[in-house]
Amino acid sequence: MEDKIKYEMEFPIQVSPPLLYQYISTPSGLSEWYADNVNSRGEFYTFIWEGSEEKAKLLSKKSPERIKFRWLEDEGEEFYFELRIQVDEITKDVSLMITDYAEEDEIEEGKMLWENMVSNLKQILGSA
């Protein structure tokens, strides 16, 4: 299997961190912008898109800062994806920081996917 490469993205979002955290850490919140449907049983989450399912394990969660998952297909690997809320101490600007992994020829596609999904999230939150 090809090695995946870590990449990070930053999306400024004009919203309160506690509200944003609800959208990145709960199945109902994630269902509104990330996947068509999200279910959880304990530390295992099922993400559903147009009939296909992907399962992920919750690796860590810290309210109201970040949540980190690993796809079950990557079990035993160090790959994960993390959604982290960063607040600038001086300006109080809020950003959603995304860390993900992709194979080299899929990084641009992965970034475009995140841009589209975060665009949906911003619309839902009223943060253009």
TrEMBL record:
Q: Which domain of life is it from?
A: Bacteria
- Write one Pfam family the protein is assigned to: START_2
SUPFAM superfamilies noted in UniProt:
Bet v1-like
Annotated ranges, domain START-like: 1-126
Name the Gene3D superfamilies for this protein: 3.30.530.20
In terms of InterPro entries, this protein maps to: START-like_dom_sf (IPR023393), START_2 (IPR045736)
This chain belongs to the protein called SRPBCC domain-containing protein
Organism in which the protein naturally occurs:
Aequorivita xiaoshiensis
